[in-house]
Amino acid sequence: MDEFLAISIGLVSYIIILFLLRKMNVWKKKECNNCNNCCPDCQEPLERIKRGNIDHMINYLTFQMYDFKKYQCVNCAWKGRRWERSFSGKF
Questions:
Q1: Which domain holds residue 28?
Q2: Residue 80 belongs to what H/E stretch?
Q3: Is residue 58 classed exposed, middle or buried when 0-12, 13-18 and 19+ CB atoms within 10 A define those classes?
Q4: How many domains, the chain?
Q5: For residue 89, is it within any domain?
Q6: How far apart are CA 57 and CA 90, in angstroms?
Q7: Across 61-84, average pLDDT
Q8: What is the pTM of this model?
């Protein structure tokens, strides 16, 4: 198989997988009754924490489709990345 073709197929497959994960709302902020950004484990509010170099690299590797932000739970100490849909301005 041609090397260029293999790289192209791999890149297109990667982009399609990213779009499918976004469409399925994987790693998206979860809303519950008491807050707009809930912990996936205990449903308590999450707090933003400072991102590191790895977090910025993940944003670049996903072509900044997700705009991940890093959060920590105040109750169970869960740490992870979440994204939200950007404001569209439509009413």
A1: 3-82
A2: strand 79-82
A3: middle
A4: 1
A5: no
A6: 31
A7: 90
A8: 0.78
